Structures are given as structure tokens and as C-alpha cells.
Amino acid sequence: MHWKGWSREQAADYMTQTVGLARAAVESEIDRYCVWPAQACGYKIGHLEFLRLREAAGAKLGPRFELRSFHDAVLKGGAMPLEVLAQVVDDWASTLMAGDVAVADGYFLRAGVLRTARFALRRAVLAFGADWAALPVTLW
Asked: What is the pTM of this model?
């Protein structure tokens, strides 16, 4: 809507016709785009990267790939930059390929992946010159 220079009404009309949502839901979405224009783009970038990582892990692991285990490995580290997430997924897949992992009921139990995420995130924060001790984060 920003790129096309549309008004709120033009965007709502287009979305109602194209997506088929109720007008109230469309107006809520349009208002979100107006006040937080980069949020939807950032969300989509994260979504596409998550799908790319899942596909890459599936290709690397073949029949060893298990979606529940992948989700567990990805979500246990909490919020993190996408570059760190890519490293976590790669470490997780490599660990599974090496057979050095305990898997029970499809859940990834090895603490090394989470530890890798912590250290990678710490390196990323320090690289930007942040005072690590001043961060109000309990993950470390």
C-alpha cells in the first residue's frame, strides 16, 4: 500500500476483494500496516528463512529429519538473529548426522545446540559493542 501510494480505503477495498476477509479484519490489518509498515515485511523475511532452513535440514538429514525435533531445536533458543538461527539449525543437523544425539519421542534433547545459540548470540552482541553484563537477559 505504501509503494502504490494507496489510501487506507483503497488498500482495504483491494484486500477485501483479493483475500476475502471480513471488512473489520481487513481494516485491522491495514491499520497495522499503516502504523508499523516494516513489521509485515520483517515477519515475511523470518517466515521465508524458517522455511529455507527447514528445507535445508530436511535435505541434509533425509529420512532422519523429524519436524517435531526440528521445531524443538529451533524454538528452545528463544528469539535470536536469523544468522544465529541458521547456525543453530546447521549444528543440530550435523549432530544428528553424526549420530551424537539423544532423541526421544521426536524431541531434540542435546544441550549443545542451545549452548551454540547462546555463544553465537553473545558473539553477535559483543561485535556490536554492547556491554554484555548490562543486558537484562536471563538466557546466559
From this structure: 0.61
